[in-house]
Amino acid sequence: VIRPEPCGVCGSRIRFGKTAIKCCQCQLLLHTKCREQCPCPCAPRPHHHSWPREGVLADFAPSTPPLVPALVVQCVTEVETRGLTETGLYRVPGAEQMVREWKRRLLRSGGVLPALSSVTDIHVVCGVLKDFLRGLKEPLVTFSLHPAFLRAADIVDDAACDTALCHVVSKLPPANRDTLAFLMLHLLRVSCSPECKMDVFNLSRVFGPTLVGHSSANPTPLAIMEDTPRQCKVVARLLSLPPDFWRGFVGTEQENLVPL
């Protein structure tokens, strides 16, 4: 054992350097002394949707609504459990190596997620969520709808802007729409925490490039320069929409969003 993990039979941790037994079928890990208490025959884990290293959001979404990937739910739940008193949430970077390692573990798990409670630094959890969203083949605001989001955010009249944004949000693929709604509600909670010191403006600067992106996978340098301030504007406008609008997509099935 290199990383201490709990025994699947007795529940106590198998310490560093100790020998353990692992089932090749169900991946159950246990102390050698607990072998006699091991359930037999083993119960192979159900075949979960296999997660690719990269893909569009729908590749990671569950089959029942709300269509929010388990990785996103678990990261958000962990942040809201113990991170809403941390200054600079999502702005302060987590250790890059830890972020990469935990993202790799979560993607390899294919939906059977290891507990993030063992990650001491909450900024690492924030980094995993941002890195996952950045690594998608297409941002939450899809390439085809990207121009429509920019146009809607540019509308000067607030009421007309809100109406246009609500309309274009409803056109997103269901997984993108539900995940965007889930994230908007989360970011609103972060913005309301005085300890975080992350208001809507700060959050929109962090999440603009990640959630809105560009209109193609390979934007020109000019497009990158022109898009950056408009990406932030879109996220700020989305965060100004009424929370009840976002709850309409994820609120009715909120009980399904409990992390595995």
Describe this structure as you would to a colleague.
- The protein has helices spanning 70-82, 96-109, 122-134, 146-153, 158-170, 174-191, 200-212, 221-239, 243-250; strands spanning 5-6, 13-14, 20-22, 29-31.
- By secondary structure, the protein is mainly alpha-helical.
- The protein has 2 domains: 1-42, Wheat Germ Agglutinin (Isolectin 2), domain 1 (2-Layer Sandwich), CATH 3.30.60.20; 57-250, Phosphatidylinositol 3-kinase, Chain A.
- Strands 1-2 form a two-stranded antiparallel sheet.
- α6 (174-191) crosses α9.
- It is elongated and about 70 Å long.
- The relative contact order is 0.13.
- The model is unreliable at 43-50 (pLDDT under 50).
Q: How far do the termini sit from each other?
A: 24 Å
Overall geometric form? elongated
Determine the structural class based on helices, strands and strand pairing. mainly alpha
Element order: H for helix, E for strand: EEEEHHHHHHHHH
Quickly count the domains.
2
CATH class of the largest domain: Mainly Alpha
The helix fraction, in percent, is 40-55%
* Cα-atom radius of gyration: 20 Å
Percent of sequence in beta strands:
under 5%
Can you tell me the CATH topology of the largest domain?
A: Phosphatidylinositol 3-kinase, Chain A
The profile of the biggest β sheet is: 2 strands, antiparallel
Read across the widest sheet, the strand sequence of neighbours is 1-2
Unreliable stretches covering 5 or more consecutive residues = 43-50
Within CATH, the superfamily of the largest domain carries the name Rho GTPase activation protein
Q: What is the mean predicted local confidence, pLDDT?
A: 86
The CATH architecture name of the largest domain reads Orthogonal Bundle
Number of helices: 9
The total beta strand count reads 4
